[in-house]
Amino acid sequence: MERKRTDCPALPPGWKKEEVIRKSGLSAGKSDVYYYSPSGKKFRSKPQLSRYLGNTVDLACFDFRTGKMMPGKLQKSKQRFRHDPLSLKGGKPDLNTALPIRQTASIFKQPVTKVTNHPGNKVKTDLQRATEQPRQLFWEKRLKGLRSSDVAEQVLRSMDLPKGLQSVGPDSSDDTLLSAIASALHMSSAPITGQTSVAAEKNPAIWLNTCQPLCKAFTVTDEHIRLLRRPASGLSASPS
DNA sequence: TCCTTCGGCGC
DNA sequence: GCGCCGAAGGA
Known about the structure:
GO terms for molecular function: methyl-CpG binding. The protein is of the alpha+beta class and about 240 residues long. The chain has seven helices and six strands. The longest helix has 14 residues, at about 175-185. The model is unreliable at about 75-105 and about 235-240 (pLDDT under 50).
């Protein structure tokens, strides 16, 4: 029988997908899907693929049968939505605070060419730094202008920040400051204090503590919390 | 021993 | 109903 291993658009070059129709037996007509790595290894299930790729890759959105990424199709624990009758009563609020992550097609391991320009150089090992995730300085600026909206695509009102918060760095807009603080709260369980180093205010490009948001050190008082607990006027509690 | 193919368990 | 994997059977 002619085997056609097709290129799969969601996969990097070299990976092939194959679909074989069963032609006899009780399950005639059913099809089996296989993948082939660039090295020729055959994969016949998602768990097998997952084991090979390791924990670094999240295949939750990868549909094995079609070979496509299906964002929003998290097959774990069926999602319920606001407009779903079952969600209206007794539905728990969305407690998932994980930041959304950009989904790319290149979820599979790919060969990397290592280029060493200066083979004689010694690399200083600094374990403290090495375990840190590399992060672009002032990356929060990239979130500027982005707005959240509800299911009806109504843009949600942004938040007002307390007066005392002052930003550090090249961008002083409330937009960026809000993004920086919100992101910091999500990305670490450690206390969020702002930039405690005075040097960071003078030259943030060098002294910025990337684990803290782009704002000057602040403290949250009981008074601040009391203000928050007071229902905000002019804001509806929920859409619809 | 390797590969293809269908059965069938378990969710 | 379907995904996953065992194993039969052929090369």
